[in-house]
Amino acid sequence: MDDDDAQQRAELVRIWGGARRRLGSSSADGAVGPRLRELAAWAESSPYGDEALDLYGDGVVAALERRVAELLGFPEAVYFPTGTMAQQVALRCWAGRTGSDVVALHPLAHPEVHEEGALGAVSGLRTVHPTTAPRLPTAQEVRDLPEPFGTLMLELPLRDAGFVLPSWEELVETVDAARERDAVVHFDGARLWECGPHFGGRDPREIAGLADSVYVSFYKSLGGMAGAALAGPEDVTAEARTWRHRYGGLVFQQYPAALSALRGLEEELPRLPSYVAHARVVAQALREALEESPAPWFRIHPEVPHTHQFQVWLPYEPEALTAASVRLVEETGTLLFRRWFPGPAGGPPGVATTEVTVAAPGLEWTPEDVREAVRGFLAGL
Fold first, then answer.
1. Fewest C-beta in 10 Å: which of 198, 220, 262, 271?
2. How many other C-beta atoms are found inside a 10 Å radius of the C-beta of residue 317?
3. Are 172 and 198 spatial neighbours (Cβ–Cβ below 8 Å)?
């Protein structure tokens, strides 16, 4: 990100943070003082207020690791400062155990799109793609992959394809297909926390139980400051701690981030099913509003959201749509959409997409509130 992009992003974050009404929330919104006071107040009233400060991963960080391991049903979990590092370490640990440096994953998965080729450049791993369709691979596609691979990595949900998930039966079959090929299965579960409603109400432990290891994020859905965890068997987590140190991830103190993660697990995790349910209400209201609008074309994807996040597509330049989003906040105090981006490479020109997240603030929105916000947004184009 160059200086101009960074300056624009900072200005947008300032504007979003000033909105009085919003569908979702972001841990990047707000100012330092209020955020720290909120976290300190929660810590004082929580069981963790008297927990020891961490030094190189003990104290409250170790308490967070134990909580994640319990929630996901694994013997141990290891805290990492970033998800990118956690997945790097997980995949190289499995490569050593399987004897294969080949990872099968989707071309839209996070390591392929958002990590600057780190799997190959840093860890010496090679990737293959069972499918290029905008969804998770099927069992048959895993069986038909023409070369051996040691690890199948599945991103749940597949964010850049629209936060999409397979059915529970399809996921089980895909995992079984990888095992038929003597491969291990790793879940990129950055957003695994909100997958339960789509999978018939299954909890994180049952979902994670399909995999050999799971990475989860603390800020994407739980509202934490930063950080991630890798959960898996004891031998893998023990090696992961060694690689975490080698990668520079054994930080002297991280208790504010760890506390914010524990707060997210206590407060946000139980609420996620209600966010998913209301995201479906919001998506339907958006559809109705856009059908009545002068917009020549639009897409809500998925039509029924699989999680509390989904995509909206409109046939305008992203800069014009972002400007309309800003104008709506400045004129009405309502934050409907955030930043818009060009559609995928190879797609039609002049089409832009944005991501919608429905969280606690959005539960107050009625369908008419959504329709009114859409009308105001389009009027600013």
1. 271
2. 15
3. no
d(CA 257, CA 254): 6
Residue 1's identity, in one-letter code, is M
Q: Pull the structure tokens for residue 268.
A: 């946000």
* CA–CA distance, 204 with 156 (Å, rounded to integer): 11
DSSP single-letter state for residue 54: P
- What tokens appear for 166 in the block? 């397979």
Distance CA 291, CA 294 (A): 8
Specify the pairing of strand 352-357 against strand 299-301. Answer: unpaired
**If you ran DSSP here, which 8-state letter would residue 161 be given?**
G
No. of helices (H) and no. of strands (E), the chain: 14, 13
Bridging pattern class, strands 341-342 and 334-335: unpaired
- pTM above the 0.90 mark? yes
CA 179-165-182 angle, 5° bins:
10
Burial class (CB in 10 A: 0-12, 13-18, 19+), 41: exposed
Cβ(269)–Cβ(193) below 8 Å: yes
The candidate with the shortest Cα–Cα distance to 329, out of 292, 281, 377, is 377
Cα–Cα nearest to 278, from 308, 300, 306, 299: 308
Read out DSSP for 260-323? HHHHIIIIIGGGHHHHHHHHHHHHHHHHHHHHTSS-S--EEESSS-SSSEEEEEESS-HHHHHH
Domains of the chain: 3-29+271-379 (3.90.1150.10), 73-251 (3.40.640.10)
Burial class (CB in 10 A: 0-12, 13-18, 19+), 190: buried
Provide the token pair at 201: 């109400």
Name the region of 117 (left: φ>0; alpha: ψ -120 to 50; beta: rest).
Answer: left
pLDDT for 17? 84
Q: In order along the chain (381 residues), what is the average pLDDT of each group of 10 residues?
A: 75 86 86 91 92 92 98 98 97 98 97 93 96 97 97 98 98 98 98 98 98 97 96 98 97 96 97 98 98 93 98 95 95 95 79 96 97 95 86
